[in-house]
Amino acid sequence: MSAYEPFAVWAPYPQDVRLRLGDDTLPMRRISADWWVADQIAEPGMRYGFELHDGNNWAGPFPDPRTTSQPDGIHGLSEVTDPAYDWTSDNWTGRDLAGQVIYELHVGTFTPEGTFEGVIEKLGYLRDLGVTAIELMPVQPFGGDRNWGYDGVDWMAVHHTYGGPDGLKKLVDAAHNAGIGVILDVVYNHFGPDGNYNGMYGPYTSGGTTGWGEVVNISGPHSDEVRAFILDTVRQWFVEYRIDGLRLDAVHALDDVGAYSIMEQIQAVADDATVRTGVPRYVIAESDLNDPRLVTSREAGGYGLAGQWLDDIHHALHTMVSGETHAYYEDYGSLDALDKTLREAYFFTGTYSSFRGRHHGRPINRATMPAHRFVTYTTTHDQVGNRATGDRPSMNLTPAQQVLKAAVILSSPYTPMVFMGEEYGAQTPFAFFCSHTDEKLNQLTTEGRKREFARAGWNHDEVPDPASPTTYESSKLDWNFSDEQETIVDAYRTLLRLRTELGLARADLTQLIVETGTEDDRWLAMGYDDVMLVANLSSAPVAVPFGGELVYSFGSPTVGLDATELEAWEFALIRR
């Protein structure tokens, strides 16, 4: 908890609650709505926990569900933090999602240090690349020192080995001074399996499973307090930490059946923080629903979120270039799929999905839906890490194919996101890793991963052990670029510069021109009356019936007035 308020905890389950403060134990009294309070005022640096009585025995102390710091890990005492910080970036005015270039990174593997300080050292590189916002994979505390972050259990705290609360604030401050915003990935659909003591206090979950953990109770009895807890975490990130945006993990896994969606309430907190601080705050959802309500304004009956991750364009582009059509890629793999997703964002618009075995999604209104509301990418932590070996596209594709995919994403009107290392063709994997403090959990995680990939046709012996330190260490980026990697990162810098100079991020989707060839003559043309990307999505030469003046290419196309000849996996940005 934060300082200068009485110690308090919501705990409807226990018969009695005591405050453990260092070596002392103090009584607490129950007040309305099942809250317990102590007469002791919290002071910065105090270590504390709560002891719970079930009617027969005392247990604990347990960490505070609303802890803001766990310096000794998820099983240790909580620490009172001071919300004040000596900010140096008060001139930061922020920016909306429109026009952003996002860079997704995992703090632990982005640099050798694996800390917020390490990220700070790379801000100049990211700014020069053309990045305007970094998106941090979850930084809430988890078991051990190695984890993707989606096993977090203390939703208001910051993992201590990354740098803790002050370390995150220092990163935000430095990023803002560098002209870069900060987006934080947050998980409200489940708690991690290691160190989740919240169920000792009250009904934070409601039974059932998301596949990652029990369903969070945002619609059942006592859910008002759970919702309030979530909204307080959102307010903390926006106001105390000055985070610019939140990315909500897998909102399709939320048991959100109330008349007011939790997403709508989260957006309301963001709007309030925007008004109070004068700096734009925004919310992006990860969703598998293909439901435009998420990003439709509240005035028009939607939830009013600023944006959502869009897997459809990734899937359509990935299958075209890689040739992979297994699992959830089975519905893609055609020029028609790529054409539709680039035009309409969603591939499934009330149409049949073979993978799901049912109809899925609904269309957006292209006339009113701004393109920037959809975040697109050539890959993400999921699309890499949820492969059996964590192999990146850059480990399987040629430089020409990698840059071709980047050209499509970075030339589209949607908000682009780059996954760390992608921009230089990293040859290190990004495998799934964890270090639960319970060895049985580590064993179950390892066995579960092997079974999952065996069912998908992978050799289970190829699956790295998630709990092995080697799996984590091998996933760290190598910042020593080869000559080939230098050419790739230079191409990314150029494409991002041209995205701005050519005005490719246009909000009105009705202006966007998309044309494709045939499955025997696989080319793509995408752009506007004045500028166009033409691309060869095959290993055979093609002639695209669009010409003009060559602006940029990673190869050596022949650009005429009315047509452009492209070699294998080649593209050209042309002025028409």
TrEMBL record:
EC number: 3.2.1.141
Listed PANTHER family: 1,4-ALPHA-GLUCAN-BRANCHING ENZYME (PTHR43651), MALTO-OLIGOSYLTREHALOSE TREHALOHYDROLASE (PTHR43651:SF11)
Organism: Corynebacterium suedekumii
Residues of the Glycosyl hydrolase family 13 catalytic domain: 100-455
Record bears the keyword Cytoplasm: yes
Name of this chain's protein: Malto-oligosyltrehalose trehalohydrolase
Keyword Aminoacyl-tRNA synthetase part of the UniProt annotation: no
UniProt pathway: Glycan biosynthesis; trehalose biosynthesis
SUPFAM superfamilies according to UniProt: (Trans)glycosidases, E set domains
